[in-house]
Amino acid sequence: MTAEPTTLDPIPGSDPSDAIQYLMQAHGGMLFGLGRRFCGNEDEAADLVQETMLEAFRSWPTFRGDAKVTTWLYRIAARTCQRMHRKKGPASAELPSNDILLDQCGLVWLSRGDEATPLDQAMKAEAKLRLESAIADLPVEYRMPLVLKEVVGFSGPDIADITGMNEATVRVRVHRARLTLRRAIERGLPEPSEPGKYDEQVCRDLLDAKQEAMDRGVEFEIPIGGLTDRCKAVFESLDLTQDMCHALGADELPTSVVDRITTAMGSGSVDR
Prior knowledge:
The protein has 11 helices and no strands. The longest helix is centred in the N-terminal third of the chain and has 24 residues. It has 2 domains: 94 residues, Rna Polymerase Sigma Factor, Chain: A (Orthogonal Bundle); 151 residues, no CATH class.
C-alpha cells in the first residue's frame, strides 16, 4: 500500500533531483509492479517508470502541494499508462454486471491464513497465477482502478483524483473487477459436497454490503442469522482474491532503470 505523505516526503520547492530520487526510492518498485501488471511485460513496465519519473522531474518546479505527493505522482503514472495503452490500440470492453457475475459464481472453499494446509498452499499458488493473468486480461478501464485499489492501496476518492473518473464509476468498476478476478481464481478450488439452498436476492443485497465494507477497509458485519452457504462461499473467495492482490505488492525496480533516470536528470537533457 502506498504511504501517505509524511514530513520525510519531498516538499514543494525542494531540489527536483533530490525530490525525484526520494520518490523513486519510495515508490519506484510499486510503480514498476503497476506497470508490469498493466503493460504485461518488464520492458514496458520499465518504460512506464522512466517516463513517469522524468515527467515528475520536469513538473516538480510547478508542484505547489495542492494534492498529496503520492496522488500527484500516480496521476502522472496513470496518464503515462493511458498514453502507452493508446499506442497499443486494443479495443475497450465492458465487464458483465454484478448480477450476472454473481450468477456465474460457483461455490468454493479454501482455508485462509494459519488454517491453510499444504494442499491449500499448492492450490493458492496456482490460483495466484490465474489471478495475475486475469488482471492482465481486464479491460483497461477496469484494470487501472482495480490495481490502484487492491494492489497499490489507494482510497476511492484518491483513485477518482488520479484517473479523472468520478467516485461512483470507480466503485462500480472495482466491484465488477473483483468479482471477475474471483471467478478466475475459483477454477480448480474445491466445491462443498452439500452447497445448500440460498436466496438470490439476499445474496445480492449482502454482496453489495460486503463490497462496500471492502471499499472502506473494514470488517463486514455478519447479519443476525448468519450467512447462506452461497454468500459465505462468495465472500470467502472475495476475501481470498483481495488477500492475493494485496500480496502482489511492489516489485523491485531494476538498477538499470534507476541508473537511466538518474543519468537523464543529471544530463540536463530531459525534454518535454
